[in-house]
Structures are given as structure tokens and as C-alpha cells.
Design a protein that fits this description.
The complex is a heterodimer of chains A (about 375) and B (about 400). Chain A has about 375 residues and is of the alpha+beta class. In chain A, about 40% of the residues lie in helices and about 15% in strands. Mean pLDDT of chain B is about 95; it is low at about 1-5. The interface of A and B includes residues 291, 297, 299, 374 and 383 of A.
Chain lengths: ~375, ~400
């Protein structure tokens, strides 16, 4: 048996032994997930047991280097772990913007001291992070952000407001884009800093969405002192990190169009409206379902092709805008079809569809709107001229 | 490499070095020998054959008809993924040749359902370029093989064929036809079909060439008491439906590869035009109204590349989901070919409406290929049925 086969056998046995039964079921609600942080609580002993088992191996971030507390797995080993977790239907032990966003940025742009300081706490779920990018007047035009960070010798004095900060009301720390050089061209005066949410002058207000949920907040900074060593990378070069993270985020959001582990739309359709003469009872809805499944299958194969190209080392990369655009539009279409199939029942406020359907409207806005993604594709992938 | 390796292995969705080489050499050859201008020339002189025999001879020398034929029958055994690369490139140059009729359709039918002696006599003749064939399927203006009514009645050692076929690709220049006939049941039954090899010079056969919008060949063929030896049955009596379906699915994927080439080339040309054409003192490609539509086409084309490669792999690995993948390919490519060919003409503006500009040839070929072997509605419906809804 080769090393990978051994790894698979051992991983399978370990997961069998350590993943409790209730952690092998689909979550009924987003609120059942564990996000970690200073004030985190577990919904059950089994959830705690599962989280601690995975964290002890660094498998909350399996592919991060072991020297910073990550799992230290190779790409191939990580793939096997993910496959084996899918096979048992294991829940993710920890959801975390630290793992999805900040960690990759620190591993690339952070100092050694920052890596050793922040990454182990992310892996162990001790600190919950949120992202401070957008501002009321800097949405699609993110680089025009105005939250200021004034140089005061040993610290920056931060003033301004962020918006759409995911779960800022529950987060311990925020990674933030601030303006350190107000007179420079807009892309050249931005820095990437880390701010403790417990600092004096930080306040948070949740935003209620059309879905009735409040996953986002407004975050205010009023004369907040941020020590200089909380700067990541070079002062005024924060836009480079921002772009890197946006690319990363877009690839991740595009995954929302990944239907591999979702119920097939036609199965939902069959449950909702049944069949006549062996075909879905409504021919117009049947056509809509088929068109979405056609695109969803083709998109799924495109994600597979991208992974295979990357593995073979000749992936063109830089297509995250395409995945973000297509995946989110596809997800919106899927939910519109579900609403159509569910009929008036879809709109029962406490029902399973209404708030999810409304939430999908944000998919093509957050992380850069569909229109921004199309701009990026035109400019960077097609080479069309700017005006 | 065998074309029928019975394996459930999922191939990575990338081309092998060998396949990449086939693609590049096909591209170089076609750009030099058979650019769009060649099709224009065939059309303008109303060429009686509809393709260039000398070009076909060179394609044969390049080994193209041999690519997907097993080595045992004189082929190269590179599989359909290899052939698909050539088809994609012929889609870029809109090259007219017997590649679809003789190689993709007929050779596939023979490989899939022929007896050893049929394979031994016919496949090497196809590989050497001397035998041209056509598959006669459609009887009405909408593709639907189950509705076949052309009858074949057994009379001792022969079958007697009566009926009519339409849209037979390359039907007027084929030496031999493969004819889909009904030997039992009634129109609409999936069973009761049989396939026959019919010599094009048979008595009672009348073949009428039809000039098509894409300047490719198609024929209407009438069968009046055409007598065919019983030995010419391809596959089993009454069991031809399955053989036909597999042949068609392979050909649908191959045709999707050709359509992919046509879409890619039409898109590349359109993007270049957007960069060159100036209005209001700037390139029209700087206008967001056009940029966003171009970017949307880019995304759809990415999906097309994935489905075609997956479809070609499915043929070469005997994937049991071949029927669904064939409909996925054909429906997706039809949808995107419609979008891209229409947008191409619109973005070229008035120039796009002129016969002097080549882009119109892409619109014409795209639309005919979309309708060949089942249009978008046929395959979308089939995809839904195959998924159980």
C-alpha cells in the first residue's frame, strides 16, 4: 500500500472513531454551526467533542503549515480528508472567516511574528474574525474607502465606518482596510490592519435584511488606537492584500453554485408538483428546471476541470470573477425556481424557502457585484479597452 | 490505447500531450489548407461534390479518419477525445469534409454494431479514404429516430426497403448508405428498428441533393422497392434502436466538439472586432453595454469546453451516463452557439450583415449544426426524461 492509501485507511478509521453520530447529519439551520471565538458556546457535547478532536490535529485548517498549528497535510492528503469527511457526511467542525480569509492573507503577507501569534488561535477557534472592507460610500468602488488611520507614532488613530461586516456583533477581531495616506491616488494609500473589537471606540450595529436575518453589521471606529505592529504587509500597500483576498473570496462565493452535495432541483420539483404521464406535471416548470439543471451540471464539470487544470499545473487561474458571477447567478436562478415550484406556500415566513430565497439576492452583490465581475472579465480575461 | 477500455476511472478533465499535439497539428493544417475562404469558394462555384477531394486525401494522410478506429481494423486507436480535437478545429475553419458523415456517424455505427466481417471490410476502406458513407436517419423536419416509418420487409434472402429519408448528411456523394428502417412495430416505438447497409447505386434509390444554408451537403432520398441482401443487416434484426442510439450519442458529442470550435472562433473574431472597430473616437469594445455581453459569452463558453471534454471522455471510457452527457453537450452547445452567433452578427453591425464578411458563415453553420441530430428542445426534454422527470 502506498502512503496515500495508508493515509486514507487511517483517516477513515479515525473519523469513524471520532465523529459522533449527530455530527454526521445535515444542519437544519445555519445557527447550528460552530464559529468559535471568545464567547462561543457549543450546541451539544457531541459538537464540542467533534470540534476538539479535529482541532487537536489541526484539521480545522488541514492544509496550513504545522509550524503555525495547521494540519500540515499535503494537497493530496487534504483532498482525501475532504473525501472521507464527505463520505461520512461529517459537518465542518468550525466555520470561520479566519480560516477562509485572514489565514491565507497572513500566510502570504504576514510577518513571522504575526503568523505565530494569530494563526494558532484561528486553527483552535479561539478568536472569531470579521472582515471590514465596504463602507457606505465605498461599495463597488471599494478603493475609494475613507476610514482613516492617522500615524500617531507607536499607533494609528482610526476613525470611520465599515458596513456589511459579517457577524461583527459576534466577532472578537476585525481585519480592516484603512486609508493611511489621504493624498495619494486612491489605490496607493490603503493599508491592511488588525483591530481588536474590544478596543475603546469600536461599536457595532446589526443590519436587518429583507430576509429578516441580521448576518451583517455596521461597524463604527471613533478614535480607536491600533498599535503599529497590527499592520499586515507594507503601509500603503494594503490594496495588494485586498485584491488577493477578494480573488480568494470570489472563488469561494462561486462555490455556492456547486450542486454536488445539494438535493437535485428536479427531486425538489417532483416533491412539490408531482408527475403526469411520467413527466413533471407542469411543462413550463419542467422546462425551467431542466434549463437550470443543464447549466448546473455544466458548471459542476467546469469546477472539476478547473481543479484538474490546477493539479496539472497549467490552470490559467485568475478566473475567480467568472466563478463568482456564474455560481451566484445560478444559485439565484435555482431559488427562483424553488419559489415557483413551491407556489404560495413558498412565502410562508417561517417556512423553509422564503428567507433563503431572499438571502440569495445578496449573492450577486456581496464580494463584488455581478456587474463588477463582468467588468473584470472584460478587462483582464478578454483584454477589452477601458474608456 | 483502446477505445473501449472498460473502466470506471474518471479521467482528469485535461487533454493529454498526445491529444494536444493532434489538436495543434489539425489547427495548423486547417488554417493553411482549409480556411473559411475555402468554404466560400466551394459555395460560390456550386461545387458538385460539396467538398474538396484533394483536401480529403490530405486529411486521410494525416490519419484523421483513423483516429477513433481500433488498431485491429487499420485505425490508430487514439479514441474519440483525439477525434474530437480535430472536429473542434474543423469547427473553427468551418471546413466541409466527409469527417462527420463517414467517420463520426458511419464508422461509429459499424464499430458499434457491425459483425467482424463487416468491420474488416468497411473500416479499413474508411481509414484509407476510399469509402464515403452516409447515415440516413431523419424522415421529418424534426429529428426523432423512434418515429421511423421507412419499411424493410424480408423476402427470402433479401429485405425490400420503401420510404423516404431527409437531411441525409453527404447523402449525394456517399458510396454506401446506412439506412435506419422499421422491421416491426409502429412509428413511435423505440423497438423494431434495424440498420441496413445499402449500396448507393441500388435500383429504386433516388437521391436528390439539397443546397443548405451552411453550404454543406444534405440529401433527400427516396426508396422505391430497394432490394438489399440480408447479409447487409448491421447489428441484429429489430434491435437496431440501441445501436443507433449509441452511435447517435457518440456523434452528438463529436458534433458538439465541432460546434465548440465554431463558437470559439466566432467569439475570438468578435472580441477582436470590438477592439478594432472605432466609433465616437474610441474602440466600441470600451462600451460597457458590449463588454458585459462579451463577458457573459466568455462564461458560457467556459461551460461548453467542460461539457465537451467530459462527453468525449465518456465515449472513451464507456461511461454509463453517455446518453445524458450527449444531451448535455448538444443542448448546452446549441444554447451557447445560438447566443454567440447572434451576438457576433449584432456586434459586427452592418458589416456583419454583408456576404463579404466571414462572420455570417459562422451564424449559418452554427444554426444548422445546432439542429443536426436533435435541436435544443429535443435534448433538453431527453435530459429531463433521463433524469426521471
Amino acid at each position: 500500500m502506498n502512503d496515500l492509501a495508508t493515509f486514507r485507511t487511517e483517516t477513515r478509521a479515525w473519523l469513524e472513531a471520532n465523529c459522533p453520530p449527530s455530527m454526521r447529519t445535515n444542519m437544519k439551520h445555519e445557527s447550528e454551526a460552530y464559529w468559535g471565538g471568545r464567547n462561543a458556546t457549543f450546541i451539544s457535547d457531541e459538537q464540542q467533542q467533534w470540534f476538539e478532536a479535529m482541532a487537536s490535529r489541526g484539521w480545522t485548517a488541514p492544509a496550513w503549515p504545522a509550524e503555525y498549528g495547521g494540519g500540515g497535510l499535503s494537497k493530496e492528503e487534504n483532498k482525501i480528508l475532504q473525501q472521507e469527511m464527505r463520505r461520512l457526511n461529517c459537518r465542518k467542525p468550525l466555520l470561520s472567516f479566519g480560516i477562509w480569509m485572514l489565514g491565507p492573507a497572513l500566510l502570504r503577507y504576514g510577518s513571522e511574528a504575526q503568523k505565530h501569534h494569530y494563526i494558532p488561535d484561528i486553527v483552535q477557534g479561539k478568536i472569531r474574525w470579521c472582515q471590514g472592507y465596504s463602507e457606505p460610500n465605498a461599495g463597488s468602488d471599494l478603493a475609494s474607502l475613507g476610514t482613516s488611520a492617522e500615524d500617531r507614532g507607536d499607533h494609528y488613530l482610526v476613525n470611520g465606518q465599515k458596513v456589511w461586516t459579517s457577524y461583527a456583533d459576534k466577532a472578537d477581531w476585525i481585519f480592516c482596510l484603512v486609508r493611511t495616506e489621504p493624498d495619494a491616488p486612491k489605490h496607493s494609500g490603503i493599508s491592511f490592519v488588525l483591530i481588536d473589537m474590544e478596543s475603546e471606540g469600536v461599536s457595532v450595529r446589526p443590519i436587518k435584511l429583507i430576509s429578516g436575518k441580521s448576518p451583517f453589521c455596521e461597524t463604527f471606529f471613533d478614535n480607536v488606537k491600533v498599535p503599529k505592529h497590527h499592520l499586515v504587509g507594507t503601509e500603503n500597500k494594503g490594496w495588494t492584500i485586498a485584491k488577493y483576498l477578494l480573488t480568494h473570496e470570489r472563488g469561494m462565493i462561486g462555490g455556492i453554485g456547486d450542486t454536488e452535495n445539494k438535493q437535485a432541483l428536479h427531486e425538489f420539483a417532483l416533491q412539490q408538483i408531482g408527475t403526469e404521464h411520467g413527466k413533471l406535471a407542469d411543462p413550463i416548470l419542467r422546462q425551467q428546471v431542466a434549463q437550470i439543471e443543464l447549466d448546473a451540471w455544466a458548471y459542476q464539470l467546469t469546477l472539476e476541470r478547473a481543479a484538474d487544470e490546477a493539479k496539472a499545473g497549467h490552470g490559467p487561474g485568475a478566473k475567480s470573477s467568472f466563478y463568482k458571477y456564474y455560481g451566484t447567478e445560478l444559485n439565484k436562478a435555482r431559488f427562483e425556481a424553488m419559489v415557483a415550484l413551491g407556489g404560495t406556500e413558498s412565502f410562508e415566513w417561517e417556512g423553509p424557502i422564503a428567507s433563503h430565497w431572499l438571502r440569495t439576492k445578496g449573492n450577486s452583490i456581496e464580494g463584488g457585484t455581478s456587474e463588477i465581475q463582468l467588468n473584470i472579465i472584460s478587462k483582464h480575461l478578454l483584454g477589452l479597452p477601458s474608456k | 490505447m483502446s477505445t473501449t477500455q472498460h473502466t470506471s476511472t474518471k479521467l482528469p478533465l485535461i487533454l493529454s500531450e498526445e491529444q494536444q499535439m493532434i489538436k495543434e497539428s489539425a489547427r495548423d493544417f486547417l488554417h493553411a489548407k482549409a480556411p473559411v475562404a475555402a468554404l466560400r469558394q466551394l459555395r460560390d462555384k456550386q461545387d458538385s461534390q460539396g467538398f474538396d477531394s484533394e483536401l480529403w486525401r490530405e486529411m486521410v494522410e494525416m490519419g484523421w479518419p483513423a483516429l477513433a478506429v481500433p488498431e485491429a481494423y487499420g485505425g490508430l486507436g487514439f479514441g474519440y477525445t483525439g477525434l474530437g480535437q480535430v472536429l473542434e478545429e474543423t469547427g473553427r475553419t468551418l471546413t466541409a469534409s466527409p469527417l462527420v458523415s463517414t467517420v463520426l456517424l458511419a464508422a461509429t455505427a459499424i464499430q458499434t454494431g457491425g459483425s467482424v466481417s463487416q468491420k474488416s471490410s468497411l473500416l479499413p476502406a474508411i481509414v484509407s479514404g476510399e469509402l464515403l458513407m452516409a447515415l440516413a436517419i431523419d424522415e421529418t423536419k424534426h429529428h426523432n429516430p423512434a418515429k421511423t416509418t421507412l419499411s424493410a420487409q424480408q423476402d427470402g434472402d433479401t429485405f425490400v426497403l420503401n420510404g423516404r429519408k431527409t437531411f441525409v448528411l453527404d447523402g449525394h456523394m456517399a458510396n454506401q448508405l446506412i439506412v435506419v428502417a422499421r422491421t416491426s412495430g409502429t412509428a413511435g416505438d423505440r423497438g423494431g428498428l434495424s440498420l441496413f447497409l445499402v449500396d448507393a447505386s441500388s435500383k429504386g434509390l433516388s437521391i436528390e441533393r439539397v443546397m443548405m444554408t451552411d453550404s454543406r451537403n444534405a440529401a433527400n432520398i427516396t426508396f422505391d422497392q430497394v432490394s438489399v441482401p440480408a447479409d447487409n443487416l448491421l447489428g441484429d434484426l429489430d434491435q437496431g434502436g440501441e445501436l443507433l442510439e449509441k452511435t447517435l450519442d457518440i456523434a452528438r458529442i463529436g458534433l458538439s466538439a465541432e460546434l465548440l470550435g465554431t463558437v470559439l472562433e466566432a467569439f475570438d473574431r468578435t472580441v477582436n472586432y470590438l477592439k478594432e472597430r472605432q466609433q465616437f473616437g474610441v474602440p466600441i469594445g470600451s462600451f460597457q453595454a458590449l463588454q458585459h455581453r462579451a463577458a457573459q459569452m466568455f462564461c458560457e463558453i467556459e461551460l461548453c469546453k467542460s461539457v465537451v471534454l467530459k462527453g468525449l471522455h465518456a465515449i472513451d471510457t464507456d461511461d454509463p451516463t453517455l446518453p445524458a452527457l450527449a444531451s448535455l453537450c448538444k443542448a448546452k452547445l446549441a444554447q451557447v452557439a445560438q447566443l454567440v452567433s447572434n451576438e457576433a452578427v449584432q456586434m459586427y453591425g452592418g458589416i456583419g450583415m454583408t456576404d463579404d464578411e466571414d462572420i455570417g458563415f459562422f451564424l449559418k453553420r452554427a444554426r444548422v449544426a445546432q439542429h443536426t441530430l436533435g435541436a435544443y428542445p429535443f435534448h433538453l426534454d431527453r435530459l429531463a426524461s433521463l433524469s426521471g422527470y
